[in-house]
Amino acid sequence: MSSSIRAEKLRIKGTVQGVGFRPFVFVLAKNEGLTGTVLNDGRGVEAVLEGSSEALERFRTRLLKELPPLASIESVEAEDVPVEGRQDFVILESRSNSVSTVIPADAAVCEACLKELSDKNNRRYRYPFINCTHCGPRYTITAHLPYDRPQTSMKAFPMCPDCLQEYKNPLDRRFHAQPNACDVCGPHLELKDKKGNLVLCEDEIAELLRQIQEGKIAAVKGLGGFHLVCDAGNAAAVSELRQRKHRPFKPFAVMALNDLSASRFVRISEKASKELHS
Ligand SMILES: [Zn+2]
Ligand SMILES: [Zn+2]
Question: What is the DSSP string of 59-118?
C-alpha cells in the first residue's frame, strides 16, 4: 500500500494571497486525507502534500475548480519530493522573501457579511468595517508583502479574543482574514465638522444623513481616499460642490443603493445589471 504514497510540492502563482487561499488549501487537503504544509511567500503559495496518488490528483483538480471567489491561479508547478510520513496538515508562517506577487483589489462587501451586518443578534450588527476572506480591503491597507496583518494598516488594531478565535479557526469564514475586526477591537467611525472637531452623536451615519439632507457637503473617508458627497436632488448643494471642485459642467457620479433604485433615473439592460453586480 505504501508504494502508492507520494509527496509533491506545488508552487502556485497568481492572486493567491489575502483571498483565503491557505485555508482553502487546508480544508481541501484535510478533505482528501492529505498531510503536509502550506505557506505564503514572496512568490505566491507553496504547498507540500503527501498521500495516495489518487488523492493528490483529486486535490489538484479541485484546487482549480473550487477556488475561493477572489482568487485566481496563473500557474501551478509540481515537483516530487521525498515521502516523510507527514502526520498532519498545517499552515506555516509566511516566509518573506523579496520577489513580489499580486495583491488582490479591495472587494465589495459579500452577501454573507451583509447578512451579518443587518442581523441584530450578530456581534457585527451595523459594524461598518465588517469583512471576511471573501470581501473587504486588501490592496489599500497593504504596505509590504507578503500580505499578513503586521504588514497592513490593521497592525494598529490588535484582535480581541473573539476575532482571534475566528482568525485561528480553519473552518471559519474569517480564518486568516488579515483585516478581521469588530466593534470591540477594530476601527470606528468618527464624524467631524469642517474645523476637524469631533461631532458628538449617537449614530454617525444617521447624523451625516441628516446633515446631507440639510444641504451640507461631506467628505467620506473610504479605503482609498476621500469621497465628496451631497444630495444630488438639492440644486444649491450641487452647485456649491461644483464651485468648490472647480467643475462647472462635467457630470458627477450619482450613487444609488442598487440597480433597482438606479432604474428610477436610467434604463438598465440585463447585461448592464450583471456588470453592476459583478
Ligand atoms: Zn465578507
Ligand atoms: Zn474583535
Answer: HHHHHHHS--TT-EEEEEEEEE-------SEEEPPPB--SS--PPPPPBPPPHHHHHHHT
Decide if pLDDT at 207 tops 50.
Answer: yes
Residues paired with residue 142 on neighbouring β-strands, in sequence order: 152
Distance 190 CA to ligand 1 centre (A): 23
Q: Does residue 200 surpass a pLDDT of 50?
A: yes
CA of 55 to the centre of ligand 2 (A): 37
Q: What is the whole-number distance in angstroms between the Cα of residue 196 and the centre of ligand 1?
A: 32
CA dist., res. 163 & res. 177, Å (int): 10
What is the DSSP-derived secondary structure letter of residue 221? E
pLDDT at 96: 64
Between the CA of 123 and the centroid of ligand 2 the distance, in Å, is 9
At 38 the three-state DSSP class reads: strand
CA atoms of 59 and 32, how far apart (whole Å)? 7
Give yes or no for residue 99 having a pLDDT over 50.
Answer: no
Q: How far is the CA of 124 from the centre of ligand 1 (A)?
A: 12
Whole-number Å distance, alpha carbon 138 to ligand 1 midpoint, is 12
Cα–ligand 2 centroid distance for 42 (angstroms): 28
**What is the radius of gyration, based on Cα positions, of the chain?**
23
Q: Which ligand is closest in space to the CA of residue 108? A: 1
Domains of the chain: 2-91 (3.30.70.100), 103-187 (3.90.870.30), 204-277 (3.90.870.40)
pLDDT digits (tens, 9 = 90+) for 178-198: 899 999 999 999 999 999 999
193 alpha carbon – ligand 1 mean position (Å):
31
**How many angstroms separate the alpha carbon of residue 180 from the centre of ligand 2?**
7
